[in-house]
Amino acid sequence: MSTVALIASIVLGLTFVVAGGAKIAAGPTWPVHVRDLGVPMFVAPVLPWVELLIGAALITQLVQPFAAWAAIALTVAFTALIARRLSQGRRPVCACFGAWSAKPIGGRHLIRNAATLVLGVLALWA
How far is residue 25's CA from residue 95's CA, in Å, rounded to a whole number? Predict the structure, then answer.
C-alpha cells in the first residue's frame, strides 16, 4: 500500500462522508433537487446512507478495493446524469453536497467528478 493511495482513499472517503451527511442535513429539499437532476426517486432516500457507508469504508480501509470500486461506480453514474442534463441544455441544481452545492450544474461539475474519479483509481491501490 502506497502513501499516495492511502491519502487518496482517505480524501475520497471524506468527500463521500461529507456529501452523504450534507444530503441528510438538507432534509426534504434534497430529494426535490435530485429528482430534477434525474436520480430515480426510489434511490433518493438511501443514497446519502450509501455514500456514508462507502466513505467510512474508504477511510477505515475496510473492504478494499470494493469500497474504491463502489465510489468509482457512483461517481460515474453521477457524471453520466450531469452530462446528460447538460447535453439536453438543462441546468438543474446539483445538490451533490446538499445545500452547500445549490448551484446549477455546469462544466465545473464534470471537472470535479473527473478529479474524484482520479482519487478513486488511486485508492484502488490502498
Answer: 12
